[in-house]
Specification:
Elements: H1 2-10, H2 12-23, H3 40-55, E1 59-63, E2 67-71, E3 77-84, E4 102-104, E5 109-111, H4 119-134, E6 142-148, H5 156-164, E7 170-172
Parallel strand pairs: 3-6, 3-7
Antiparallel strand pairs: 1-2, 2-6, 4-5
Helix pairs in contact: 2-4
């Protein structure tokens, strides 16, 4: 473990710089186009991540810009780390530029849209896998990193990925509080309609999966 800690500490600034590159991509769901099922920005984030994985010597696979993966060795993948690169819209209340990562060295805080959910964990998983690979740590089984692009809007990315690729038997997602969540709050997507005799407008929130301010 000390080898891994030392390795990650030595690559700390590189991790922050790459996270900043991902945060700068406003990967909010956009209009679907041919070859870009969730718009161009989520696809750009996926392209950026897979390019970096390739530079680290991983075998990458882009599943039609729905999702992508990177295998860290040639063994059959028995474990997958599932993250996502799409984000919700910025919204209001920011005191800094949301797509510019702010690093507070005294506290080690990283502030930016997606830094916690889920680009930061994606970068952490990538560099953890890189550490295992470059340190030559022995593995008996394969590990796959999977990167989605539609988690914030229904996970159609994962549904499509599962149609085209088989998931490893063990999968976990670093998208929540450390170390483990086995249940989250429920989400009920319900629509109401009625007729009014007077003009009425009700507005709350920016997307269906965000709590209104």
């Amino acid at each position: 473990m000390s080898k891994i800690r030392d390795y990650l500490e030595a690559h700390k600034q590189e991790m922050i710089d790459f996270l900043a590159e991902l945060v700068a991509i406003p990967s909010v769901q956009g209009e679907a186009e041919e070859g870009f099922p969730f718009g161009r920005m989520p696809a750009k984030a996926l392209e950026t991540m897979l390019k970096k994985c390739g530079e680290f010597g991983f075998t990458v696979d882009n599943v039609e810009n729905y999702a992508g993966s990177a295998d860290i060795n040639s063994l059959p993948a028995e474990l997958a780390v599932l993250t996502h690169l799409d984000v919700v819209p910025v919204g209001t209340g920011w005191t800094t530029e949301p797509y510019v990562l702010r690093h507070e060295p005294d506290t080690d805080k990283l502030v930016g849209r997606g830094a916690i959910d889920d680009k930061g964990p994606a970068v952490a998983a990538l560099f953890a896998a890189r550490a295992v690979k470059e340190l030559g740590l022995p593995l008996k089984k394969g590990i796959r990193l999977i990167f989605g692009t539609n988690e914030e809007n229904g996970s159609a990315d994962l549904a499509y990925y599962r149609e085209k690729r088989e998931l490893p038997p063990m999968v976990f997602t670093p998208d929540g509080e450390y170390p483990v969540i086995n249940a989250e709050k429920g989400m009920l997507r319900v629509y109401f309609s009625t007729e009014w005799s007077l003009p009425v407008e009700i507005k709350a929130g920016t997307v269906i999966n965000a709590v209104p301010s």
